[in-house]
Amino acid sequence: MRLPVFFVSLAASAALAQQCPEDLVRYFSQRNEPFSPGAYEYPYQRIPEDCRTYKVPAIERVINEAKNNTIADPDLHWLFANTWPSTVDTTVKWTGYSADNPKEELAFIITGDINAMWMRDSSNQLQSYKAVLSSSDDKVAKLFRGAINLQARYMRRSPYCNAFQPPPESGIPPTFDHADGDVVKPEYDPDFVFECKYEIDSLAAFLQLSYDYYHATDDAAFFAEFSWKEAVRSILDVSKGLMEGTYAEDGSINASPYTWARKSTASTETVANKGTGEPVNGNIGLVRSFFRPSDDSCIFQYFIPGNMMLARYLKATADIMDTIDEGMATEMRDMATGIEDAIEEHAIVQHPKFGKVYAYEVNGFGSHSLMDDANLPSLLSIPHLGFKGNDDPIYKNTRDFVLSRWNPYFAYGPVINATGGPHLGPGNGWPMGVITQILTSDDDDEIVGGIRQLMGSTSGLGLMHETVNSHDETVWTRPWFAWTNGLFGQMILDLADRKPHLLKKSYQ
Ligand SMILES: *[C@@H]1O[C@H](CO)[C@@H](O)[C@H](O)[C@H]1NC(C)=O
Ligand SMILES: *[C@@H]1O[C@H](CO)[C@@H](O)[C@H](O)[C@H]1NC(C)=O
Q1: Is the pTM of this model over 0.90?
Q2: Which stretches within 131-172 are classed as H helix?
Q3: N or C: which end of the chain has fewer CB within 10 A?
Q4: Does ligand 2 have an atom closer than 6 angstroms to the CB of 152?
Q5: Which residue's alpha carbon is at the smallest distance from atom 11 of ligand 2?
Q6: pLDDT confidence of 18, banded at 50, 70, 90?
Q7: Mean of the pLDDT values across residues 219-241?
Q8: Ligand 2: which atom is nearest the Cα of residue 457?
Q9: C-beta neighbour count of 233 within 10 angstroms
Q10: pLDDT at 406 > cutoff 80
Q11: Which secondary structure element, helix H or strand E, spans residue 310, and what is its range?
């Protein structure tokens, strides 16, 4: 519709709003002008400034400064500028204050193409801005606090769930297309919860987000202000309940604190034994998970990377709890130590080619699954999680295994060599897998090879995708996946720190 000129000038904001892309999935599936000056000719995929959901001057400053001083290759810089701001540009759906306490900040951050807030995705989406989070009074700090408070609300009320609806304060209506028909115990309120797959790393993600904020700002006082402690209480209680095994001492069956059932033709969207899963040997120190960070169901419920992540962040956030409740801080450290010991005892297995490696999943009876999936937390990401360094001998064996054709979910071919997973099936590599490989590598050739793979597998769209077919660059998934975009930026900033000379190279 053409508006009369005088009307446009009077209604400047309405005119600007008109230029905002309505359908971001479609927008990010097309090549938007202008194009990068190098051989890759990436499109410019940031949405117009006035359409962005949350503006952070510090992020713009880092992008601009990187162009002059840090990243020599014009295409690589362009890709960084397209990807890193994805979360703030497109997914901060709402920020505001709690109806219960006008001082309590809230931030509702969606995953991208789905209108819901995942515990895992939102924690990782924000982690990509940790580099620009330094004091408790900037815009990034506000976003972290808002997300921590909202996650704490989710965690207190529905601690088994993975993805959540907008808070009522936002006025954004909930959506119900995803989990309709799921039969879940304990029951949940669908106006509050978007999907209720219990995943151990959702618990750990809340702690990771808390730690990232605390580590960057030293602001321990914030955690005593609202209900953070009660959210951690939920995490400890849920974890304890899920350390119990299938059988009681006398052989009777323990009631599972959580069960999940869905009608599906995919085995990764069902849970064996009437929604309780494969039997597990109980009270060995490991915490069960029903689903993986891919949202696929576990084969064996002691999901090892998730247990590693939980142990690491229980310890890290016990330092915060010291200032609030010493008894609980001790409980957190004890649980973490118990998990660590159990990993040593139950999760290290002998591989016929690689020697001692960490299993992906175990059941505590001696059965295990040897594989890796690209979604974080993964085995490949152990040093990124901070559980063990990349010089740990068992990690090194595990890494060699994961990045080889012995990993049943390693996708390889002319387009990408990367870990994948059953979520989108064999033969599809995840850019997130390559990014994790770079984040955990000290080897210049490996890092340069990884950057080239990432630059060469965007299907001309200049963004990170969820998966790319290892033999066909035009076959890929999810045009608007904020988590991996952010992680690519995080990787660039990490390299600027650790390996600055690799960003001074040309990648043409
Ligand atoms: C980058 O370099 C250009 C041209 O030399 C200069 O005009 C600009 O101020 C510089 N920007 C930053 C952020 O250093
Ligand atoms: C993947 O690895 C194979 C060797 O195993 C190599 O020939 C191929 O070029 C690699 N693909 C990419 C995208 O680097």
Answers
A1: yes
A2: 139-157
A3: N
A4: no
A5: 414
A6: low
A7: 97
A8: 13
A9: 17
A10: yes
A11: helix 304-321
- Joined together, the tokens standing for residue 228 give 């953070």
What is the average per-residue pLDDT within 156-165?
98
Task: Give the number of the ligand closest to the Cα of residue 455.
Answer: 2
Spatial neighbors of 36 by CB under 8 A, at least 6 apart, are 42, 43, 44, 74, 75, 78, 79, 462
Mean pLDDT for the chain?
A: 95
- Report DSSP state, residue 129: T
The pLDDT of residue 13: 47
64 lines ligand 1 (CB under 6 A): yes
Q: In ligand 1, which atom is closest to the CA atom of 64?
A: 13
Report d(CA 286, CA 332) in Å as an integer.
14
Q: Strands, DSSP E only, in 316-430?
A: 348-351, 355-358, 361-362, 368-369, 410-411, 418-419, 428-429
For 419-435, how does the pLDDT look when each residue is reduced to its tens digit (9 = 90+)? 999 999 999 999 999 99
Assigned CATH class of 104-346: mainly alpha
What value does the mean pLDDT take over residues 267-282? 96
Which ligand lies nearest to the CA atom of residue 68 in the structure? 1
The SS3 of residue 476 is strand
Q: Which two tokens stand for residue 132?
A: 């620009």
* Tokens describing residue 223: 């955690």
Where in the chain are the domains?
7-93+443-508, 104-346
Burial class (CB in 10 A: 0-12, 13-18, 19+), 102: exposed
Contacts of 501 (CB under 8 A, 6+ apart): none
Residues 383-393 have a mean pLDDT of 98
Q: Which amino acid is at 435?
A: I
User: What is 147-208 written as a DSSP string?
Assistant: HHHHHHHHHHH-TT-SEEPPPGGG-PPP--SSSTT-EEES---TTTEEE----HHHHHHHHH
CA dihedral 81, 82, 84, 85 (to 10 degrees): 100
The residue-averaged pLDDT of 353-370 equals 98
Tokens of 494: 């990490």
CA 167 to chain centre: 21
Task: Using pLDDT thresholds of 50, 70 and 90, give the confidence band for residue 26.
Answer: very high
